[in-house]
Write a structure and sequence with these properties.
The complex is a heterodimer of chains A (472) and B (366). With 472 residues, chain A is of the alpha/beta class. Chain A has 13 helices and 22 strands. Chain B folds into 2 domains: 167 residues, FAD/NAD(P)-binding domain; 158 residues, 2-Layer Sandwich (D-Amino Acid Oxidase, Chain A, domain 2). Classes of the chains: A alpha/beta (472), B alpha+beta (366). The structure holds flavin-adenine dinucleotide (2 copies). Chain A: It comes from Nitratireductor indicus C115.
């Protein structure tokens, strides 16, 4: 008989790791899988070995604490392991993995998907110039290798992440040439009541802003990066002020910089759940297209549960609490008594309120395509400009799938993660339809590219299970 | 308000679109309706192989004509005539190859048998373990992703209206013909052509006709861009592999390995137990393929009836209703058989015989 795990957890960020800790307290067999080398996810990413002596931060401390608790719990971990497909076979879920160039499969009675979020691109002229990185991507640089994006960086984006990144750059000895955020001070004030749900987090965010102001870092509220200049490397950016609806206003501001952290907001990673058969719906307030799941993590697919940012961007604190709630749901599913915990649920609701307010800030005034000129590259993998995509829509390709088929937008290595929101926006604009009607392209496995040799492995030709040939 | 058309075509795949174009050029006013987008069913996700070596013997004359149509469509559909090799690796496969390709050559396909050395000098990256092989210079491929784009353009040019996201949910009759219900205003037409691919059965059932349509769920995969590794279309004696490297360097791998799902559920799933042997076979044929990463695998629904010959003609028992589908190798043959179907509906006698949808499917139709 093959080995069957009771509960497998994909993603060892705050959501997945805390879920594993809850499951680890029971008798059932669990397994925590992540493609990174260590648990921690995006927010609590572990440092590379070379920089272990670097000073601790709240993130690194929480991460270390989590990793210690995981080690002490005896939860089985499979790190450096990518999940490339999930399928239902009879009573079980089969999780297909890729590790050290070898494909493997795991059978599990229940699966918790806690695959987190991905960062959206913000296509503006010059965004593909070397020296431009994602805003969330920048945090990975700091945490993993304490590298700075450059000597003088413009940090641009919505929500709290822009201030976190700017203050980290300063803490690590870099210069922030400017902070640029489409949000206004009034946007933040309007969110204050919800943020009071977590005064501790509010306080921390306030400190980042205070630090930047004390250091006289210019903060451009209600502005966005309109273009990046430089041929083979960044030499500066041009900003513009935004109207309330996000459209650019005249009056450009130029700023010299050698690097740009450019955020397009976070969107839930829905692909794994989609491949497992979970439907999606459009919830801009939660980051865009999200998987349909109940707040306790259950989905329409039996034995499949979702936790953390992958079912709506609510941030790390909420993710950590959600993981614990969803673990209980999964335990009940496999027949383990596990009472729900009202205090936990209350804490989760508070953290969600804070997190959702942050996501709302990120969505506000953000137009994924509003600043792209006709010549701006929208699909990076296939070098497709806004104009090329608009022409395709004009010729009648009025769905994400149709634009993908006609122009290859989404057929490159990123699988459409960077361009699909922009393409949907362009269709909506041109066709005068709501974004909620423009579904993302049909998901295709593998979730991550897989070498053919890893799948084929060593085999004898005679052992291939060849079906009957086609009729003559 | 409802509209009146000479003919409503249910299904905007290659069959429905090709027939619509012929009907329009013959003077009728058709409308094409699709539940999704044009060319996003089988016609938009198939492997795009245009190979006479994998066509059924009796369909060879249609496939030869199909190749002429593809050559005419040319760059707009990514057509390339590259030639193709079919390989056998075991004695058993070699026998199968000889038997099958001989019959196909007799049916008119320019297929020749070639030696292992000829194969390797043309395609040095193929495995040395070829036992027998055949070659057809007519073979090649087109880019099925472009089906929707191409036919949308052609229909617009011909002023043929089409509706996307317009599923036909029931069909009634009035004195002048058919009334198609779609959720929007009903669409009226004197005639109808059912070209709903793997969904023909439920659509025919709307008219009370039971068509014995089944669906296979074929798997296709594509790799990232690779340096040039081979130039022709590669097939396997059993038909269980088709492989081509596109101009942009990506390699497309098919062969009809079965995924999971039904057209009714609308969702097809790639299953590893099919994908892995499909890719293994491909890597066996082309060892360097092992280095390529697979970027995407997908499935599509291919319709058939028990004798695996087309449905092309009048819908039994329903005057003015026609059906076209279930053509094996239907991407290759579609543009041609769609034209024949158009001729038939226009009242002209088609250049080649059609396939009576009212026949006895249990009898061998050959
Ligand atoms: C690049 C990036 C940086 C971020 N930085 C911060 C930050 O500094 N501060 C902050 O408050 N928020 C940050 N966020 C937001 C983040 O989403 C947090 O809210 C939080 O990390 C969410 O926790 P989670 O457990 O839901 O997901 P995550 O922490 O994202 O964890 C998901 C985990 O799943 C793994 N995974 C995903 N898919 C697969 C797969 N197919 N196979 C195997 N493993 C897989 C990932 O490797 C990851 O470890 C960042 C987001 C991103 C995308
Ligand atoms: C994966 C795969 C690989 C293949 N490889 C090859 C190959 O390499 N070479 C080759 O020659 N052939 C190949 N084929 C076969 C070929 O693709 C098909 O024979 C051909 O595309 C069928 O065309 P069709 O128009 O009949 O069906 P489809 O293209 O499926 O079109 C049917 C259309 O009807 C629409 N429809 C259904 N129900 C309704 C309704 N109620 N109302 C409105 N619209 C409706 C659907 O949305 C769909 O667009 C392959 C098939 C598959 C699935």
């Amino acid at each position: 008989m093959r080995d069957i795990v009771d509960i497998s957890i994909v993603g060892a960020g705050p959501a997945g790791a805390t879920a594993a800790l809850v499951v680890g307290q029971t008798e059932c067999r669990s397994l925590l899988i992540d493609e990174q080398r260590q648990a921690g996810g995006q927010v609590w990413r572990a440092k590379d070995r070379s920089i272990l002596s670097a000073p601790a931060t709240p993130e690194s401390r929480s991460g270390d604490n989590l990793r210690e608790r995981l080690a002490a719990s005896g939860v089985s971990q499979m790190t450096d392991t990518r999940v490339w497909q999930i399928e239902r076979q009879g009573e079980h879920w089969v999780i297909h993995t890729l590790r050290n160039g070898t494909a493997g499969r795991l059978y599990s009675r229940a699966v918790i998907l806690a695959t987190g979020a991905r960062e959206e691109a913000q296509p503006v002229r010059g965004w593909t110039t070397p020296g431009v990185i994602g805003l969330a991507g920048a945090t990975a640089l700091f945490k993993q290798s304490i590298r700075l994006p450059g000597r003088a960086s413009v940090v641009a984006g919505t929500g709290p992440l822009v201030f976190f990144v700017a203050s980290e750059i300063r803490r690590l000895g870099g210069t922030v040439a400017a902070v640029v955020t489409p949000n206004t001070r009034a946007d933040w004030l309007a969110r204050l009541p919800s943020m009071m749900a977590r005064p501790d987090l509010l306080w921390r965010g306030g400190r980042w802003v205070a630090d930047l102001m004390l250091a006289s870092v210019p903060i451009y509220w209600g502005h966005a990066v309109k273009s990046v200049s430089g041929d083979d490397r960044v030499i500066g950016v041009t900003l513009c002020r935004l109207a309330t609806d996000g459209t650019p206003l005249p009056g450009d501001i130029g700023i010299a910089a050698d690097s740009v952290c450019l955020g397009g907001g976070l969107a839930p990673s829905i692909e794994a759940a989609q491949l497992a058969g979970v439907a999606v719906r459009y919830r801009p307030d939660l980051g865009g297209w999200v998987s349909e799941a109940e707040s306790d993590g259950s989905t329409a697919r039996e034995g499949l549960f979702l936790a953390g940012d992958s079912c709506g961007i609510r941030g790390a604190v909420a993710a950590e609490l959600h993981g614990q709630i969803v673990a209980r749901t999964a335990l009940r599913h496999i027949g383990q008594a596990s009472a729900s915990d009202p205090a936990l649920e209350r804490a989760y609701r508070r953290a969600s309120r804070f997190g959702e307010a942050m996501t709302a800030l990120s969505v506000l005034r953000a137009d994924p395509i509003g600043l792209a000129t006709p010549d701006t590259v929208v699909c990076r993998c296939e070098s497709l400009t806004r104009r090329a995509i608009e022409d395709e829509i004009e010729s009648g390709a009025v769905s994400s799938n149709a634009v993908k088929s006609g122009q290859r937008a989404g057929m490159g290595p990123c699988g459409g993660k960077y361009c699909q929101s922009s393409v949907a926006r362009l269709i909506a604009l041109q066709e005068n339809r709501a974004l909620s009607e423009i579904a993302p392209p049909t998901p295709r496995p593998p979730i991550r590219p897989v070498p053919v040799s890893a799948l084929a492995g060593d085999f004898d030709y005679g052992d291939l299970p060849m079906p009957k040939p086609a009729p003559l | 308000m409802s509209e009146n058309h000479d003919i409503a075509i249910i299904g905007g795949g290659i069959m429905g679109c090709a027939a619509a174009l012929r009907l329009a050029s013959g003077g009728m006013a058709p409308i094409v309706l699709d539940r999704g987008d044009l060319g996003q069913g089988a016609s938009g996700v198939n492997a795009g192989t245009l190979s006479l070596q994998i066509k059924r013997v009796r369909l060879m004359p249609y496939a030869l004509k199909g190749h002429e149509e593809w050559a005419r469509m040319g760059d707009a559909v990514g057509f390339r005539r590259t030639g193709g090799y079919t390989l056998a690796f075991t004695e058993r496969e070699a026998e199968l190859l000889t038997e099958r390709q001989t019959l196909k050559a007799e049916a008119g396909a320019p297929i020749e048998f070639v030696t292992n050395n000829q194969v390797l000098s043309a395609e040095p990256n193929l495995t040395r373990r070829v036992l027998a092989a055949s070659y057809c210079h007519e073979d090649g491929y087109a880019n099925s992703s472009l089906t929707g784009q191409y036919y949308r353009g052609r229909l617009r040019e011909a002023s043929v209206p089409y509706r996307e996201r317009c599923a036909v949910t029931s069909i009634t009759r009035d004195t002048q013909g058919f009334v198609l219900h779609t959720g929007g205003p009903p669409i009226k037409a004197r005639r109808i052509l059912l070209a709903a691919g793997a969904w023909l059965k439920p659509v025919a059932a709307m008219l009370g006709v039971d068509l014995p349509v089944n669906a296979r769920i074929n798997t296709v995969s594509v790799t990232e861009r690779m340096p040039p590794l081979f130039a022709t279309v590669i097939g396997h004696a059993t038909g269980l592999l088709t492989m081509k490297q596109k101009g942009n360097g990506t390699i497309l791998i098919g062969g009809g390995w079965q995924g999971r799902g039904t057209p009714q559920e609308g969702r097809g799933e790639v299953i590893a137990d099919s994908l892995i042997p499909n890719l293994s076979l491909a890597q066996f044929a082309l060892p360097k393929l092992g280095q390529a990463r697979v970027l995407r695998s997908w499935t599509g629904f291919e319709a058939n009836v028990p004798d695996f010959y087309p449905l092309a003609g009048e819908l039994p028992g329903v005057p003015d209703a026609f059906v076209l589908g279930c053509v094996r190798g239907g991407y290759t043959i579609g543009p041609y058989i769609g034209r024949l179907m158009g001729d038939f509906i226009l009242g002209h006698s088609p250049e080649m015989p059609l396939f009576n949808p009212g026949r006895d499917f249990e009898k061998d139709a050959t």
